[in-house]
Amino acid sequence: MLKNYKVFKTDFAGRELIIETGKIAGLANGACFVRYGETVVNVAVTASQKPRDGIDFFPLSVDFEEKLYSVGKIPGSFLKREGRPSEKAVLTSRVIDRPIRPLFPKDMRNDVSVVCTVMSVDPSCSPEVAAMVGTSAALSISDIPWNGPISEVVVGLIDGEYIINPTEEQKENSKMSVTVASTKKLIAMIEAGANEVSNEVMLEAIMKGHEANQKIIKFINDIKDEIGKNKFTYESNEPKEEMLEAIKEFALEDLKHALDTDDKTIRDERMAPIRESIHEKFSETYPDSEALIDECIY
Hints:
Helix content: 25-40%
Distance between the termini: 53 Å
Structural class: alpha+beta
Strand order of the largest sheet: 1-2-3-4-6-5
Largest sheet: 6 strands, mixed
Order of helices and strands: EEEEEHEHEEHEEHHHH
Mean pLDDT: 91
Number of helices: 7
Radius of gyration: 23 Å
Shape: globular
Low-confidence stretches: none
């Protein structure tokens, strides 16, 4: 028997949602196996121990991996391997990335990888929604600093009634398809398509999605309270206050002038010599700190 194996169950839009932990990907910082109806997605999240040097952005990668065996097919004939990610897989990776990225610490530069592998697909239970919920759960129970959880639902509209996570059959008759990702307090992302509905109807659909997300957010918080790890400490990329003040004093007025236009080309032309002069002035005072100097300028 697996010592750390846990199973958590809840109802999600009329279908059973099961999250299993402690069985697969034991070396990942956080991992879970999500079953939504007959759809199964394995989610693993990992983070590097040290920050990546010389970058001024947060290095997060999200991979939504579709497998042919998830729909009962095995690659054969001339091509016996899985192909490159489909357009849908790439877009799903972006849909997961967008709401989770702002919830990481702004000054963190450790590489973080999220891999969602689709093991089985039930057309009536979206693997994209299962992957998003699994990502939120895996990050929440991991030791990676993250200000979650979040949840995601798809809202449909049939005969004036809002449907949460519509089935494949219901999607064909739905007048809208609205994906809503949200935290406990705020809506984090909206992706919407509709067949000529009013602003009021769209707004109500968004709020219905936000309301439906709250149950899953509480569910993930309960899992986190039971088995969540303590978050690790990381090396902050936040510039020192003295560096920021020195650069402010040296270049603030020039920066104000450079940014005083709505023409990006002109802004870039004005910013180039200012950025160069700032680096020239402070590179000796703060060696090996190019990324931090750029952070101060930004």
